Amino acid sequence: MENRCNQDIKRKKGRHPKKNYDSGILTKELIDITVEVYNHVHEIKATANELSLPPNKVKKLLITGKAISYSETEQIQSLQKQGKTMAEIQNIMQLSYSAIQTYLPYTKVIYKLSEISQNAERIHKYRSRKAAVGLLKEECTEENLWKCIVQFQEYLFFTSSGLPFQYTLRIGRNGDFTKELFINRRENSKSLSWGSVRIAFEKAMEKTDHFFLRPKDIADVRGISYVYSLLWRFGIIMVPENIEQKLKGIKG
């Protein structure tokens, strides 16, 4: 896992190398990963946030992977077997065409080149991030924490109050990432130093069995509201269930 993680880190911009993809295999991988994430977070919206996918597409992927089921799906499929046209089904169920489609599983693999490339990138990012978090859980070191920081660039995080944010890193003159996170939250951009992240990490490691009710329970450092979200996502800290929902982007 470590060698693979190190190889992934060297791909500074997280770009997946161009190649000819097998559409069928790629579609199955996307379904499997979507089901895997959903079984962990138990929320369609949280799954959508994790994979940067629209919620309706996640719902359709989960139906295809038999991870969730709806009575509407069974009713639509029953009407189709009876030979009903789509217009007739819309009239019977009082649903729009697009709404009906969200209840049906995928019947064809994805062949559109742009979508294939995007899905391959999603799968690559998910696996790289999962590997980095797994490595950090095996060895909670600053080095492995930094690997997570690198891998989670442009990931959609949420603060404990439910505000969305992402961050990026910049490359210095020596070709390595500089130790500063540039937070982009809506129209405002802020920077977060690696020093703040490291201090909060060290404090959190002193209380591994503790539930942190709010960011400043970890440490009173600049940008702690952002660090709180990062440490939770990386599996370093535990938080109450109501806070966890907000960190997942689920509004109560």
Low-pLDDT sequence parts? 1-18
Largest sheet: 4 strands, antiparallel
Structural class: alpha+beta
Please give the alpha-carbon distance between the first and last residues: 37 Å
Please give the count of helices.
Answer: 12
Average pLDDT figure: 88
- Count of extended strands: 4
Tell me the helix content.
40-55%
The largest beta-sheet arranges its strands as: 1-2-3-4
Shape: elongated
Short description:
With about 250 residues, this protein is an alpha+beta fold.
Task: Please give the structural blueprint.
Layout: H1 2-10, H2 23-41, H3 44-51, H4 55-64, H5 71-81, H6 86-93, H7 97-102, H8 113-138, H9 142-151, E1 157-158, E2 164-168, E3 180-185, E4 188-193, H10 194-205, H11 224-233, H12 241-247
Antiparallel strand pairs: 1-2, 2-3, 3-4
General description of the model:
- This protein has 252 residues and is of the alpha+beta class.
- Among the domains are: 37 residues; 101 residues, no CATH class.
- 54% of the residues lie in helices and 8% in strands.
- It contains twelve helices and four strands.
- A hairpin with a 2-residue loop joins strand 3 and strand 4.
- The longest helix has 26 residues.
Which key phrases capture this entry?
252 residues; alpha+beta; disordered N terminus; 12 helices; 4 strands
